[in-house]
Write a structure and sequence with these properties.
Layout (H helix, E strand, L loop, with lengths): L2 H25 L13 H8 L2 H5 L3 H19 L14 H6 L17
The chain binds zinc ion.
Length: 114
Amino acid sequence: MTQEKLKHYEKKLLVMQDEILTNIIGETSDEENPFQVDGDLADKAEAFSSVAISEGLSTTQKETLELIRKALQRIKNGNFGTCLACSVEIETERLEAIPYAETCKKHMSETRYR
Ligand SMILES: [Zn+2]
């Protein structure tokens, strides 16, 4: 995978992460929100990693955030986009739809994440 593609997916992941976190903010007070962090989305994610916020997350949101976090880690580690089950490159269209996918189409039914 090219650096350009990695950047593309990294951005998608950060946007998805931000959307989840923004949804949570929407449900909390809109006054003096301590999580209104300007600048980098990654910085914002740091701010959100507090226990207080994670308690406000649904299980699905927590799982998705965790998958996004792991995907971002894989981008850093240089093994992003390969199936955890068979090590082939995950289909582009699958990554476009689910950039935090951990498996190729063939193996997606074998994990609880689709
Ligand atoms: Zn596979």
